[in-house]
Design brief:
Blueprint (H helix, E strand, L loop, with lengths): L11 H8 L4 H54 L6 E3 L2 E3 L2 E3 L9 E5 L10 E7 L4 E6 L12 E7 L1 E9 L5 E2 L14 E8 L4 E7 L3
Antiparallel strand pairs: 1-2, 3-4, 4-5, 5-6, 6-7, 8-9, 8-10, 10-11
Length: 209
Amino acid sequence: MKFGFGAPCVGAQGDQASSGGFTLIELLAALLVLSLLSLMSYRGLGAVLDAREHVRLESDKWRHVATFLARFERDIGLASPRTMRTASGTLPAWQGRLASSTAPRLEFSRFASNAGMDSARRIAYQLNENQGIELWLWPGADIAPTMQPDRYTVLAGVRNMELQYLNGNLLWLDSWPTSTLDAPIPLALRLKIVLASGEEIVRIYALKS
């Protein structure tokens, strides 16, 4: 009996099985592409989160600025021409001091609010050493010898604050009053604040003298 040996026969199914897998190089290339896509997605997400945080901080900053300006405008709109009595005499109804003074930059008497939520009192605004604008509130329109104001920071992150006052000759002055001929309250007030981030804000307010 004879046995014949022929070449092995590879069918069509064997060809499909051998061609359906991935080589090691193909797997490494796919992993590399996935890694690059993941890195790009992470950086993109980080940029989005950073941008959102920046927008939040900017929104908070300008919201605080708007709140301060609204409070400042309301206070000076209630300015009173009444002088303030102290133990040593009287002080002008409106007193604007130079920046070199250790006393508040702006101090004035103020009427009670129209809503009746606040009483007539003496108030002041001052830029402190921590780059914050402070509001000083005395409990009344006159000051006793031992009476100290409550002090609140109403706007933080302020590098500089400048105040000027318009007199009857339409001249801007750095202090008020400058003479006995000046009115109890100037015609207008110019406020300039420079934020720690560099922005400058200028507002001019007409006053009821």
